[in-house]
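Quick one, T. Sequence first:
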Amino acid sequence: MAAFLRAATALAASLLLSACLVTPGKFDSTLDIRADRSFTFTYTGEILASDMGKGLGSTPDSGSDDPIDGATPKDQPSTLQIALQKKEQAPPEDFSAKDDKSDEQQMQGIAAALTREKGFRVARYMGNHRFEIDYAISGKLTHAFLFPFNSDAQIVLPFVAVELRGDDRVRMKAPGYSNGFDKSANPMGGNSSGEDAAKALDGTFTLTTNAEIVSQNQEDGAQNTPQGKRIVWKVTPLTSEAPAATLRLKP
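Structure tokens:
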């Protein structure tokens, strides 16, 4: 059982270390939801990426002092100690070039994965962990909608989520459009990726709808337009509360 728990912990850690935290930079985003459940979502601007594994430390050691699992006795050198001894005896190696190349390949891989997804008209890597994005998609809210979410790119935090609530309501929340995302995106802590991402927030998110607005958290309220109601959130590093609204649609 102990061996199984160590393996499961190592697997979970490895998945977290390989995941990518993407956050908005400068952007303009819109969401239009009609009472008949049709919707259109757009995102134009920057997406910033960072490796959640950096600064988290190494994955848990698979070794154990528990003799039941056949682990290395304390009076013998462990596998880790042997590896460290070999490392000390080996000539020094410059890893900076390898790290830069690996990082560049990871970022290009993210761009390629996004390009293959429907809706991404532009997904271009611009260097320095910054992507240029032009995304637009339309459809029917017969199921939940998330942006962005891509398993190939290992994106772990959607900017915007639209959920169905009962037969006639939808709830929209945009955790990525606030500086609150860094408190939950990396539960293991240990790096400053969330803080740096929060400082880069600079955008506008606009919700338009002809459905009934049950609730929303923009203090200026909704404005009347020929297309219905419009709510505009200005997103900055000082935005602590995620934009949110609940709408009542036609059943």
